[in-house]
Design goal:
Blueprint lengths: L19 H8 L3 H8 L11 E2 L2 E9 L2 E8 L2 E2 L3 E2 H5 L5 H10 L5 H32 L5 H15 L11 H31 L5 H13 L5 H10 L5 H13 L7 H11 L5 H12 L7 H14 L2 H13 L14 E2 L3 E4 L2 H15 L6 H20 L11 E2 L3 H12 L8 H18 L24 H14 L7 H4 L1
Parallel strand pairs: 3-7
Antiparallel strand pairs: 1-4, 2-3, 4-5, 6-8
């Protein structure tokens, strides 16, 4: 292994031994049950990366109706909890390191890992900018995914790709995954900035795009995440903006059995011919309308509501809720809707919004009138779908639908001014590291199934009162009332 590679890159956490299917087969005396279980016997027994159980219970009121929220909260590798991110005890680097290596980094390892990420990102920028500038000049409205796929094709055509398989050393494979992912991230963010430059000055040459993007990046520092935030914001991100966006991204690094994670596992299990293909496929899955691409559906629905008469907006929102396709509400894997007094809740929307509201209240973030009106439309969706609930003909009780991760992510990016067509890019940047965690584990295991049970040793225990229920309650109360996007002093 080249001396410049940090030794920890060779570390690979052991595959979990927990095998609930195998254990059940051994215990049952029913031949029919055993035969059914054997259909799943060749699949991975469990995962040692992430567990996301219900850990908190929170009583709240919705229009005077008492509800109990069962709040899910994740742990990574059994040692880093979601609340560590929320409280600031774990940043993106710490979470990525723990997820990849199954332990916390020493101070020296943290510096080495940060340097590796910085070097790979900045080398990627130098490699891709000349070709990317020519591409954006030819296709000035190209979205980030098209730019990434274009540059991925060039990478495959000009470099000797290596397959993702178990025969490669863990260090070499991980270095390849990091290099490709950070190059894609650089392409996506830089193409977004070049699109902005071309809208401001359509006659700009490819050379001018190259020079201006280089000059802008020189002002952002060497941290790749701050550079990406700045490119998307079209200005050097300040410390408040970095904190808000890094909180949003870090929470998203791993999403358990999300569709894009499963695609990454499938490509690893099938020994894809290149890391480029794995990340391109994961990004395509991420952008699907029933995955994080739902944020695009929300953008389109908000535009529809903006053009509707104010008196019709509630009716249009209820119609979408009746049809089961209200953007950013509901969840395919948890009981995020119901007519009973108990609903499962994904806390991520509240976690994303908490630092945003703190910044609004302190005056660090000012919400323009135009953006405030748009986010208030989305707030009204929360009030109708979750607080008031939906009455369906012939059904007793009100159906309440909880928001999902897209709800909070859309509001944060709308308030900060990230362009609508770029609002899945941050998710790609951070979730790509979660895909690496899955790929490394998957190469130790057979074919996969859509939902993999966590090893009990990594499942965090139930928690009582804590920071996450407090945040969920505060955000709920704020969204229930008026003037949520004014500073609290002005709202009062």
């Amino acid at each position: 292994m080249p001396k410049r590679w940090p030794p920890f890159l060779s570390e690979l956490p052991s595959a979990p031994e927990y095998s609930p299917v195998g254990t059940a087969i051994a215990k049952t005396n029913d031949s029919e049950i055993a035969a059914a279980l054997r259909l799943f016997a060749s699949m991975p027994p469990s995962t040692g990366v992430l567990a996301n159980p219900v850990r908190h219970h929170l009583p709240i009121a919705c229009n005077g109706v008492a509800l109990e929220l069962n709040i899910r909260s994740f742990g990574i590798r059994g040692c880093l909890l979601e609340e560590d991110i929320v409280t600031g005890a774990a940043d993106a680097t710490r979470v990525i390191f723990v997820g990849l290596f199954g332990r916390f980094a020493s101070a020296g390892e943290r510096r080495s890992f940060q340097l590796l990420l910085s070097q790979e990102f900045n080398l990627a920028v130098k490699r891709v900018l000349p070709s990317l500038a020519k591409f954006m000049k030819s296709f000035p409205n190209a979205p980030a995914d098209a730019s990434m796929q274009y540059m991925s094709s060039i990478r495959k055509a000009t470099e000797a790709s290596q397959a993702v398989n178990a025969s490669r050393s863990s260090a070499e494979l991980l270095r390849d995954l990091i290099r490709v992912h950070l190059e894609n991230s650089a392409v996506g963010a830089c193409s977004s900035y070049m699109r902005f430059l071309l809208r401001r000055r359509p006659t700009a040459s490819a050379g001018a795009l190259l020079r201006q993007t280089k000059l802008f990046l020189e002002s952002t520092g060497r941290d790749p995440f701050r550079a990406i935030f700045s490119l998307l914001l079209r200005r050097k991100a300040n410390s408040t903006e970095v904190g808000i966006l890094q909180n949003l991204g870090t929470i998203q690094i791993h999403h358990g059995s999300a569709g894009s994670n499963m695609v990454a596992r499938y490509f690893a299990a099938l020994y894809t011919k290149s890391a480029s293909d794995l990340f391109a496929a994961g990004q395509m899955a991420l952008d699907c309308a029933r995955h994080f691409g739902a944020i695009t559906d929300l953008t389109e629905f908000v535009a529809q509501l903006e053009h509707a008469l104010p008196g019709r907006r509630d009716e249009l929102i209820r119609q979408r809720a009746f049809g089961g396709n209200l953007p950013s509400f509901g969840h395919p894997e948890i009981s995020a809707a119901g007519r009973t007094g108990c609903i499962e809740l994904d806390p991520r929307p509240a976690i994303y919004l908490s630092p945003l509201f703190e910044a609004i209240d302190s005056g660090s973030v000012d919400v323009s009138e135009t953006r405030r009106k748009r986010v208030e439309i989305v707030q009204r969706m929360y009030q109708l779908a979750f607080v008031e609930g939906i009455e369906k003909p012939g059904r007793s009780g009100r159906l309440r639908i909880a928001p999902n991760t897209d709800f909070g992510a859309w509001i944060v990016q709308e308030v900060l001014g990230i362009e609508e067509m770029d609002r899945t890019l941050l998710s790609y940047v951070f979730r790509g590291f979660g895909w690496m965690m899955d790929v490394r584990e998957q190469l130790q295991q057979p074919i996969i199934r859509p939902v993999i049970p966590p090893d009990p040793s990594i499942v965090p225990p139930p928690a009582g009162e804590g920071v996450i229920p407090g945040i969920v309650a505060a955000i709920h109360n704020r969204l229930c009332g008026p003037n949520a996007f004014f500073s609290s002093s002005r709202a009062n």
